[in-house]
Amino acid sequence: MWYRAFALLLAAGLLSTIWLRSAGLPHSRSATLAANPLPAIPGCCTAGPLRLIGAWQLTSPHEDFGGYSALIRAAPGRLLALSDRGYTLEFSEPGAVQLGPQFAAIVGNAQQLKANRDLEAATLDPASGRLWIAQESRNSIERHRLGTGREAFRQIPEMKDWALNAGPEAMVRLTGGRFIVLCECAAGWFQSGRHPALLFAGDPAEAGAAQAFTFAGIDGYRPTDMAQLPDGRVLILARRLIWPVPARFAIKLLIADPAEITSSGVWRAREIADLLAPWPVDNYEGLALERMPDGKLIGWIISDENGAVTQRVLLLKVEIDELKL
After folding, report:
1. Cβ(238)–Cβ(224) under 8 Å?
2. Is the pTM of this model over 0.85?
3. Closest CA to 305 of 252, 222, 246
4. Does the N terminus or the C terminus of the chain have fewer Cβ atoms within 10 A?
5. Positive or negative CA dihedral for 30, 116, 316, 19?
6. 221: closest CA among 298, 163, 159, 273?
7. Count of C-beta atoms within a 10 Å radius of residue 93
8. What is the β-pairing status of strands 270-275 and 247-256?
């Protein structure tokens, strides 16, 4: 009978969490954003090649704020966060020249179903200003041009068997124009560390077959975002749900080499960092890389608070020691 009691307790907790989510702030269109530094923790924080050099909680009264599932370096000193409700937030990096935040809708509008706006991954070609986004609930990829709207949309045939609520979760455009897309779903029963993946020779929003392979990460962890390093390898953000009510997470950073992707083969990643306490840990889903004028490589990591009062929109700034990768 213990399992029935546990199920009832879990259901009660979930209902409590949903109620807490619904009691939000009044709707506002105020385009303001605050980046509040987290309290400094003595001796914090290093993990493998990563060193934490800044951590902030982002807050805003704007009704479209939150739910960020992808992060892009839009321009020097500016980041673009994209939410799983189809909205974007472009804002200045803490420490950079502060310009006003810009809120916008990139997919649909507030009246449409979340299934039509559930973007989970994004990648940018800085040279052309073209942005590709992947929608989980439609297993699709669409191409936008920053500031001008959608140019192309395609549901990907090779994703037809990917779960609609656990589809394309991480995507990166590689130097040279190829694309990698990783599914949040597992490759099969008892394969929680392996995920279906696709390699596109060109623009995935246009016609063309994709090469299927399997991404082998860390057992129990799901990929949430990717970014390419200057040396061509790829950093992969990975997350594990430890406990659902209230939600607690474990976060790792992995590395893999696209040159090792083979047709119908296994692409293996290795762990380079485990973000344990005293690191501020939350539901991190967005990763962007930036080469600074002084030559340092910086990573920006953002969390999706899921609209829950027990979670926060956190922004981390980490310095990456490339000699340790």
Report:
1. yes
2. yes
3. 246
4. N
5. positive
6. 273
7. 21
8. antiparallel
